[in-house]
Design a protein that fits this description.
- The protein has ten helices and no strands.
- Helix 7 runs antiparallel to helix 8.
- It is globular, with a radius of gyration of 24 Å.
C-alpha cells in the first residue's frame, strides 16, 4: 500500500474524504430523483405510441367473417430531445436557465445563492441540499462505522440507493426496478465474499423478503379487495434481505411497520391526511433496512438473549 493510500485510509482522514465524495454523489442523486420517474414515463409513452403505430384491429361482431378494419396509423412524431441522467444539463424549472458548474457545488452554491435561481430568483427547494447532505452523511458514516475496506464502500452504495428510491417513492409512489433489482443482485454479489453475511443467508433473505410482502399483499387483497402495497416494496425488501441476510428480516418488517404506522397516524391527526390517500411504504422499509445493515445482528442477538 502506497503512502498516499495509507494516509487516505487513516481512520481520521477516510470519513472526511468520503464526506466530500458523498456530497458530490448526493448532487447526482438529486438528478436521479428528479429525472428517473420522467424517464420511466417517457418510456411508457413511447411503448404505447409504438403499439398504436402497429395498427390494432377494431373488434368485430360475433359471426362477422369480413376482414377486420384496422385502426388508423398515426403519423410519425418528431424525435424527442435526448433525456437521460446526463443529458441535457440541469436547468432551472422556472426559467430554463442552465445551471453552471459554479452554481452546482454541493451545499455551497445553494447557500451562496440564498436558495434562489441566479437568473430569475425563483426559489430552489431546500430538499436539494438535504439530499446532498444525506449523500455525504451516508458516505462519512459508512466510512467511520466500517473503516477502510469493502464493507464501507458497499454500505455507501446501499445507502445512496435507499435515499434515491425513498425520495422517488415519496414523490410518485413508485419504486423503480432500475434501482431495486440492481440493488438486489449487488447485495448477492457483495455477500458472495461474506462482507455482511454469508451467501446462503443472503439468497434465503432475498427470497424470503420478496415472499413475505408478496404473501401480505395477496392476503390483504383477498380480504379487502384492495391493493395494500406495490410490487416495488416486495423487491426492496428482497434487496434488503440480500444485503443483510434472512435473520434480520423480522426486525426490518417490524421496524418499518412501526415507523409507517406512527407516521401515518401523525399525518391523519396533524395534517388531516385522509385514510383513503395511499402512503408510500418504501421510505420506511429503507430506513429499517439501514438499521438492519448497521445494527441488525446486534439488535437481533440482544433480543434473542432475553429468551435464553
Amino acid at each position: 500500500m502506497s503512502d498516499t493510500l495509507k494516509a487516505a485510509a487513516h481512520p481520521t482522514v477516510f470519513p472526511w474524504l468520503c464526506l466530500v465524495f458523498g456530497l458530490v454523489v448526493g448532487s447526482f442523486l438529486n438528478v436521479v430523483i428528479h429525472r428517473l420517474p420522467r424517464m420511466m414515463e417517457r418510456g411508457w409513452r413511447e411503448e404505447c405510441a409504438e403499439l398504436l403505430r402497429t395498427g390494432e384491429p377494431y373488434p368485430r361482431a360475433a359471426g362477422d367473417a369480413s376482414p377486420a378494419p384496422y385502426a388508423p396509423v398515426p403519423p410519425p412524431q418528431p424525435k424527442p430531445e435526448t433525456y437521460n441522467l446526463f443529458v441535457p444539463r440541469s436547468r432551472c424549472p422556472a426559467c430554463g436557465h442552465t445551471i453552471t458548474a459554479a452554481e452546482n457545488i454541493p451545499l455551497v452554491s445553494w447557500a451562496i445563492l440564498s436558495g434562489r435561481c441566479s437568473a430569475c430568483k425563483a426559489r430552489i427547494s431546500p430538499r436539494y441540499p438535504l439530499v446532498e447532505l444525506l449523500g455525504g452523511g451516508a458516505a462519512a458514516w459508512s466510512a467511520a462505522h466500517f473503516g477502510f475496506g469493502p464493507a464501507a464502500f458497499a454500505a455507501m452504495v446501499f445507502l445512496w440507493c435507499i435515499v434515491a428510491a425513498s425520495f422517488i417513492d415519496f414523490d410518485t409512489q413508485l419504486l423503480p426496478d432500475s434501482i431495486t433489482l440492481p440493488l438486489l443482485w449487488l447485495g448477492l454479489l457483495v455477500n458472495a465474499g461474506g462482507v455482511f453475511t454469508d451467501l446462503r443467508s443472503a439468497v434465503i433473505g432475498a427470497a424470503a423478503g420478496y415472499l413475505a410482502l408478496w404473501s401480505v399483499y395477496w392476503l390483504f387483497k383477498l380480504v379487502t379487495g384492495k391493493e395494500g402495497m406495490g410490487f416495488g416494496d416486495f423487491k426492496l425488501l428482497a434487496a434488503i434481505g440480500a444485503w443483510c441476510g434472512w435473520q434480520v428480516l423480522p426486525l426490518t418488517i417490524l421496524l418499518s411497520s412501526f415507523i409507517g404506522a406512527a407516521v401515518g397516524i401523525a399525518l391523519m391527526v396533524f395534517a388531516r391526511h385522509g385514510r383513503s390517500v395511499p402512503i408510500p411504504f418504501g421510505p420506511y422499509l429503507g430506513a429499517a433496512g439501514i438499521v438492519a445493515l448497521f445494527w441488525g445482528p446486534q439488535i437481533t442477538r440482544q433480543y434473542l438473549n432475553q429468551f435464553m
